[in-house]
TrEMBL record:
The protein's name: ATPase
Pfam families reported in the protein's UniProt record: AAA_14, DUF4143
Annotated AAA domain residues: 23-157
SUPFAM superfamilies for the chain: P-loop containing nucleoside triphosphate hydrolases (SSF52540), Restriction endonuclease-like (SSF52980)
Residues in the signal sequence: none
Boundaries of every DUF4143 domain copy: 228-390
InterPro entries per record: AAA_14, DUF4143, P-loop_NTPase, Restrct_endonuc-II-like
Length: 436
């Protein structure tokens, strides 16, 4: 648990949920240790008269009160156990690790229908795994769902109290004007530190307060160990080793020149059918994501995406570093021997920032040439994004894509300053969070 107040963007969404006239019970889902419990309890303490917190992993006996799913049955028993009265609109009820009590998950349907004035937020680190693998009854249409991500770079700068720098970045992005050189260098230094630290709240908190890379590494490795434990605890025995192998391979596959995920990179003779369940597990758990190749540049993207060609990215860039034992000096001081892995790491970073902004992302190549790292829709326009880890940029792929597919402009993410030239919008690596 971090010990200083960490501002998270999720609070704004929680306030909107609280004030919505059509509010339903909320499910906040995301990978373990992204800050769900901290954010929701802080939100409850600030915006409600009282909070009733239930953790179904720590206190499995709570499950007994859900033998009847009617709110009229559940609420008095919950009040008796917690010795607190649940007051409509004034008490926030939190169901944490709700995947450990499927009846509590199902009860959200009845709270929506029979007790809409009771404010409930359910949290689940492995909810996707539980619902899809254990065939839990999910209250479709009766809940709202919000995804929780690690801190993005904007939140990282906020945690460092770099408010002036943050405002300057936002202004320069909007106006396509260069950031002052001294601030540009400072922002790039902070970006490189973020590559190493990542956005897991415990790692960010420790690094901001102590600036001790070794301690930060210990925290990140503890999180990776917790993920490994989840793979054992919430998985079929026959799938545990495969799931760990797929997750461990992500960083290695990103170090290749061709970053497309290849099953033969797991072991000689490996086939998709052998590892597809393991791959599904890590994506359902929210600790990794697939970015598919577009087979045809047409809408909707999902209907034109390849089922077999994809890249795999970790949910947090700091964990990606830790998974490959990349040190602070390697990343921040740009060790030349680190260059092979750096390109994939930077791609992983860009993906996490785009995902935090809820952008649907794909990649593109034509006959294995002119690859575009990311394709997104911005203001209903198809925009190609090219990612470079340094200032040495050639944009032949962007020019070819724009010419053929008539995109209004393209984005090149690199270490270069803001600007726009020949229809290419230059976005520095530290400003990816502004692409919304």
């Amino acid at each position: 648990m971090y010990i200083f107040n960490m501002e998270r963007k999720i609070i704004e969404k929680l306030i909107e949920w609280k004030n919505s006239p059509s509010r339903k019970p909320l499910i906040l889902q995301g990978a373990r240790q992204t800050g769900k419990t901290y954010s929701v309890t802080e939100f409850g303490a600030k915006y409600y008269s009282d909070v009733i917190y239930c953790n179904f992993e720590r206190d499995p006996d709570l499950s007994s009160i859900f033998s009847n799913l009617a709110p009229s049955h559940i609420l008095p028993r919950l009040s008796a156990i917690k010795q607190k009265k649940v007051i409509p609109r004034e008490t926030l009820v939190i169901f944490d690790e709700v995947q450990a009590c499927p009846e509590a998950l199902t009860s959200l349907k009845y709270f929506c229908e029979e007790a809409p004035d009771i404010h409930i937020i359910a949290l689940g680190s492995l909810l996707g795994v539980a619902v899809n693998r254990n065939q839990y009854s999910f209250p479709v249409g009766k809940v709202e769902i919000i995804d929780m991500h690690p801190l993005d770079f904007e939140e990282f700068l906020t945690a460092r109290e770099e408010n002036f720098l943050l405002e300057q970045i936002k202004e320069c992005y909007a106006k396509n004007k260069p950031l002052e050189e001294a601030l540009h260098k400072k922002a790039l230094e902070a970006y490189r530190e973020y590559l190493f630290v990542g956005g897991m709240p415990a790692a960010v908190s420790n690094f901001v307060q102590n600036h001790n890379p070794l301690q930060t590494d210990i925290i990140k490795n503890d999180i990776l160990a917790a993920y490994q434990n989840d793979m054992s605890k919430y998985n079929k025995q026959s799938e545990i080793a495969k799931t760990r192998l797929v997750y461990a391979s992500i960083g290695k596959q990103l170090a290749k020149e061709n970053k497309k995920f290849q099953y033969r990179g797991l072991k000689p003779g490996a086939r998709a059918s052998e590892f597809e369940n393991a791959l599904e597990w890590i994506t359902l758990a929210g600790i990794a994501s697939k970015v598919a190749r577009l087979e045809h540049m047409a809408l909707p993207f999902k209907a034109n995406a390849s089922d077999s060609d994809f890249k795999l990215y970790m949910s947090d860039v700091g964990l990606c570093c830790a998974s490959q034992n990349a040190t602070y000096d390697d990343v921040v001081y740009e060790n030349p021997l680190f260059n092979d892995f750096k390109g994939g790491l930077v791609e992983n970073y860009v993906y996490t920032q785009l995902k935090a902004n809820h952008l649907e992302t794909y990649y593109w190549n034509e006959n294995n040439q002119n690859e575009i790292d990311f394709i997104v829709r911005l203001k209903n326009k198809i925009i190609p994004i090219e990612v470079k880890s340094s200032t040495h940029n050639k944009s032949q792929s962007l020019k070819s894509f724009v010419s053929k597919h008539k995109s209004p402009y393209s984005i090149r993410i690199s270490a270069k300053n803001f600007g726009i030239e020949n229809g290419i919008k230059s976005v520095p690596l530290y400003a990816v969070f502004m692409i919304r």
